[in-house]
Amino acid sequence: MKILYIAELVGKAGVYAFKKGLPELRKRCQIDFVIACADGATGGNGLGRNHAAYLHKLGANVLTTGECCFYKKDLTENIEKIPYVLRPANLNPEAPGFGSRVYKVGNEKVAVAVILGQSSFGRVHGNNPISMLPSLLERLRQETPYVIIDFHAEATAEKRTLFFAADGHCSAIIGSHNRVQTADEQVMPGGTAVITDAGRTGSAESIGGCEIKSRVQEYLTGIPDWTRDAWARPELQGVLIDLGRDGKALSIERIREKLPEAPQLETGAEVLMPAAADEGVT
Predict the structure, then answer these.
(1) DSSP 210
(2) Secondary structure of residue 3 in the 3-state scheme
(3) Residue 225: which pLDDT band, with cuts at 50, 70 and 90?
(4) What is the tens place of the pLDDT at every residue in 136-179?
(5) What letter would DSSP give residue 7?
(6) Could you write out the DSSP letters of every residue in 142-185?
(7) How open is the CA angle 228-62-150, to the nearest 5 degrees?
(8) pLDDT tens digit string along 68-95?
């Protein structure tokens, strides 16, 4: 089983890079299942309902989110009806949506779950990820040996701690949120593939995928500005994980696909997300 995890899409450039880079990557690597982190796909923070439908239509089997899971009202109001979008599993039970699901892949099944870290998040708070992990993994492994965890967390130490706590109990734990790809991918002794952060999909010449000047200005003034898209040097980043039939990882490989600069026309929302993007979503 070959799993492609596409690192966090950031803004319109992230959607563009996903659209342009996925078909060739899927063909070349013979991908069985695609997971994409879309926590910053709409405006650099959050995921809108139309963007979710469009990315699914383009080939994402599952879209994961993080602390921005409820930033867009149109998704929040419909998330219960959209099985391919996951919010963190360790939120309070009253939160809408699902933190994990099992998906069919031919004659096989793949389980995907999202866990939110506890360090540095001010607006959304998750329950202790290590405490809830055993029951979550036990439930998912009853259905399939292929279990992938997206650990959306700020602190490197928190991510590494979860890696060791879960080693041998799931197929892979992929770190997200920091939007900078780390070079520490490995298969742990128990057979769990890990990486501290898979990176970002969008502009490589940016600050976390966002326009450089606006981010510098935010640090100077304290006024946030997420309205400016960065487009220079688009890349699709992520990891490719090869799993054995027992669900243990055979290998994990970092992906960095450099893509052509977007033509001016591609920067328009009418091209990146056509009006019919949400067709079929109820």
Answers:
(1) B
(2) strand
(3) confident
(4) 999 999 999 999 999 999 999 999 999 999 999 999 999 999 99
(5) P
(6) TT-S-EEEEEE-S-HHHHHHHHHHHTTTSSEEEEESS-S--S--
(7) 80
(8) 999 999 999 999 999 999 999 999 989 9
Strand partners, 2: 242
CA torsion, points 229, 230, 235, 238, in degrees to nearest 10? -60
Regarding beta strands 172-176 and 193-195, do their DSSP bridges make them parallel or antiparallel, or are they unpaired? parallel
Q: How many whole angstroms separate alpha carbon 156 and alpha carbon 119?
A: 10
CA dist 241 and 118 (Å) reads 26
Identity of the amino acid at 65: T
Q: pLDDT, tens digit, for every residue of 42-65?
A: 999 999 999 999 999 999 999 999
Going by C-alpha positions, the residue among 102, 126, 255, 111 that lies closest to residue 170 is: 111
| Token couple for 127 | 């329950």
Name residue, tokens 């079929």. Answer: 280
| Sign of the dihedral through C-alpha 267, 27, 257, 39 | positive
